[in-house]
Structures are given as structure tokens and as C-alpha cells.
Amino acid sequence: MQFTVLTLFPEMFAPLQESILKRAQEAGLVKIQLVNFRDYATSKHKNVDDAPYGGGAGMLLKPEPIFAAIRDLPQPSGRRRVILMSPQGDVFSQGKAKELSEQEELVFICGHYEGFDERIRELADEEVSLGDYVLTGGELAAMVMIDSVVRLVPGVLGEDASAEEDSHSISLLEYPQYTRPADYEGRQVPEILLSGHHALIKRWRRKESLRRTFLRRPDLIKAVTFGADDYLLLEELILEHEEIAAWQPLWKHLCPQPKRRRKSSHNPEGKQ
Ligand code: ADE
After folding, report:
1. Under CATH, what is the fold of the domain 183-254?
2. What is the pLDDT of residue 104?
């Protein structure tokens, strides 16, 4: 997958030469090209910004260098998406990362200074914001997006499963994890994880994921795909947390109810 970044500060992208991103590039899975659009400025002083018409504070990026840089990109070999980094865009999410990872090329336009000349917006297929705060430029936001998209490119992570299992891609937060030692200065790893009982460990992990999501990010619950086994786990969790009990109308609506066994002469209490 190809990433092309239009920026006035290519040196800011040095962190992309480390760790998993470095290996992904060395393995030829990912190519990152940095284009300094100041190189496309035609004035004597290579100006890329100017004062806003109508007055006001700060400077705006001029259209000509960015239009010229985009026009000079080689023809895309496949699906290309041009993204303008801006606090006015749609807020980035794991879902958006997944969608973008299906493209062959992403082009990021990173602004700096007070803003863009409005005509620059027409170069972009979409505008994306990292969150509801204002950065000094789009570079850090583009790096975050590149990082989260690269790890979804097939082959980049050792196991394909680890990207799938992460928080947010399945809309439940991840369960707590532990490694050796089993006892660290009196802090014990939960007994069940040492038991080797795979079915019980799986149940414990699912319950802890549900607990974490309800307690920390109840806003994610609406997007969870519940299974019938979750019903019983949630019935346990409402006895443990008032907060989860308060969400009962929502999850009772979203979660399939397990079929209760009918009472019979063999099973007089209707036990499951
Ligand atoms: N440029 C400035 N602030 C930004 C933000 N929040 N997201 C993306 N690009 C930006």
C-alpha cells in the first residue's frame, strides 16, 4: 500500500521509520512518500501562504503549490483516496482505518498555519479530523492515521488475528491481560488464567470485556454484537455493578435471550 504525504515539514515524519512501520516498509508491504509542497511554490521566496482576503489574523495556505503538487503525482496504480487533514473533518475511528486500509493509495494533505484557502478543499475526497481539538498542523494527525492503517495491511502484524481482536474493531474493549510472574509483590494473576481450562478462560475474558466496556465506554455498547452467552454474563454483571444494572433496558433489547430448557420429568427444575 502506498502513502503519500503533502507537507511543509517532512522531517516530522521520522517516527514512521521505527518499529513495525519500519519493518513494513523494509518488507515492501508499505511505501511512504513525503512531498514538500514548498518545492512547488513559484515565487522568488517560495511562499506557500498569504493573508486572508477580507482581513483577519494569521495566514492561509495558498492554492497554487498544493494544486501543483497533487497534479504532479504519478497516475495511481489502483484505488486512491485524497484526505485533507482538518479539525472540520469527520472524526477518525477504527472503522475509518479499516475502510482506508482497503485502498491502494492514500494521499494526505497536511495544513499548517491558520488554515487553507477554501479552494484547496476540492482536491480532497474527504476531510478527516483526529479529534475535537486543534493541532498546529495536520502532520501528527496524518502520522496517527498512517500508523493505524498500516497495521491493518495484510502481513504487517505477525498474526492477522491480533488486529482483529484489538479494542474497537470488535467494539468491545479488550479484557485484562497478564504475563509472568503469577505473583508480583503480592499482586496475583487471576486464578482462572492459570487453570488451563480453555472454555472457562474464554468465558472469563468475555465477561471482563463486557465489564470494561460497560464501565468505561458505555457509548460503544450500541455497536456490540451480543451472543446468547452474553445474556448470562450480563445477568451476573448487574449484580456486581449498579452502573451496569442501569444499562439493563439497553442490553436486554440488544442481547438475544438464551432459550431456557423446558421442565421435564428428567429435569424438574428446568436447569440448562
Ligand atoms: N489539523 C489541525 N487540527 C487537526 C485535527 N484535530 N485533526 C486533523 N488535522 C488537524
Report:
1. Trp Operon Repressor; Chain A (1.10.1270)
2. 97
